[in-house]
Amino acid sequence: MRLIMAGLVVALPQTVWAEDLLQAQIRRVTLYPQGAEVTRQVQVPDGAVTVRVAGLPASLDLDRLRIAGEGVSLSGVRLVSGQGAGDSPVVQEARAKLAQMTEDLAQKEDAVALLRAKAEAALDRVVYLRGIGAAQATPEQALAIGDEVEARALAARQTALHAQAEARRAEAALAPDRRALQRAQDDLAQLLAKAENGQWLEATASGHGVLTLTSFADDAGWSPVYDMRLDRGAKRIDLTRLVSVHQSSGEDWHNVDLTLSTARPNDRMDPSELWPLLRSVGPDRPVLRTMGAEYAAAEVEAAPMRKADLLAPQMEGVSLVYHLSQKVDMRDGAEALRLKMDDLSLKAASWAEAVPSRDPTAYLVAEATNSGSEPILPGPVMLYADGRLVGQGALPLTMPGQTVTQGFGAIDGLVLTRKQTRQSGDRGVIARRNEQVETVRMTVENHTDQSWPLRVVDQVPYSEQDDLKISWNASPEVSQTDLDDKTGLLGWRFDLPAQASREITLTTRLEWPADQVLH
């Protein structure tokens, strides 16, 4: 029989208790980018009337707690804060461990004390031997007695020195045991603090079997972390995929079956909503240039935009699950734990990208297609080019079949210059049209010892008005217009040999009526 309890709270008798305090063991954890689902199991003995389950964190919310029973019928459940910390089996086990470690250390300290006592006894023997006299002896007997006393005193002193050295070494060997004992004391103190600050589950039950408790922890999560290595010679990008996991739930997760999910249970569940868009025409009216009018107009125009921006979904439609083959330990509040995922090897094209209007040098850029069967999730990345660390960045979400373009830093030996001249004037005996001619000369100089495939990027203005005529020409010819689907962006592609330079000339002509102003 399986019974699901969803946050049921009833009045339980205060004086009815099960004989044994039960301890729920964390078996499985599903970790989300923000939050975690924690699954515990506890064995309920036969004949229990009221069971107490210990060791639940203070952050556990009854409304988000789900209980399933196999062979157990429940008629009520509630949470009680901070009772009976010393009764917990985990605490009892920690106490027993601490007591055993204390006894073991005491026996070793007794052995050290025995060695020191042996050394003191040997030194006492030396003192005794020095007190032996030879007043009634003949000279020959006195010399013999002196020799015997000297030999025995030397032996006793040697015994004392050996015992002292052995005691010193034994004392030094106790350091790891004392550190382990201190850790055990700290662990017990933390368990007691967590138990006192934690919660207990009380439930009225009949039958015997297994209870499964599923709760949600907010202060936990995971995120992908990458190392991206570009090999220009092999035309390949190797992507090392790591996972950074963390939790501060108020309890340690020992030997748990861990699953990572890209689902976001804390995010909104519904898509964005569109509202009717009313447009109208009418006579031209002047715009009021007051601050209040501009502010009001901005409010009316921007309101739906802000709503869309604030509620923009992240990774909607992507829900992947990664299950770890080995069980893991995650300490409460400890530094993030790194887990490794499968690496990816992607075919890549690389080139030097030059934007003379913005940058003094060209940048190394690579592009690769996600040829895998799963998305590359967004996350921070450390960047390497030809075996050397060049910097860091952030990878976007890249679905299978999509391309990712990543920069790998400046190429200092590729120097860019851009010079611009502009001429303006009127056309016709009676000025009917205005004209502006702009000439740009761009130069790329290769001061490195290798040839570079180069893409030079610049732009020309564009017009959506019939009165504004724009024309342009370039030398050499442009390789691609509307680069990356951006109107007016131009791209030139060529190979630039070592120690060579290349000049590009771009002339743009604009014409518009004499009674209008260029904006």
TrEMBL record:
Q: Write down the Pfam families for this protein, in alphabetical order.
A: DUF4139, DUF4140
Coiled-coil positions: 91-125
Q: Taxonomically, which superkingdom? A: Bacteria
Task: List residues of the DUF4140 domain.
Answer: 29-120
Alphabetically ordered keywords of this record? Coiled coil
Domain DUF4139 per the UniProt entry, residue ranges: 211-513
* UniProt entry tagged with the keyword Coiled coil: yes
Q: Has the keyword Coiled coil been applied to this entry?
A: yes
Q: Which InterPro entries does this entry report, sorted A to Z?
A: CHP02231, DUF4139, DUF4140
Q: What is this protein called?
A: DUF4139 domain-containing protein
Name its species. Answer: Thioclava litoralis
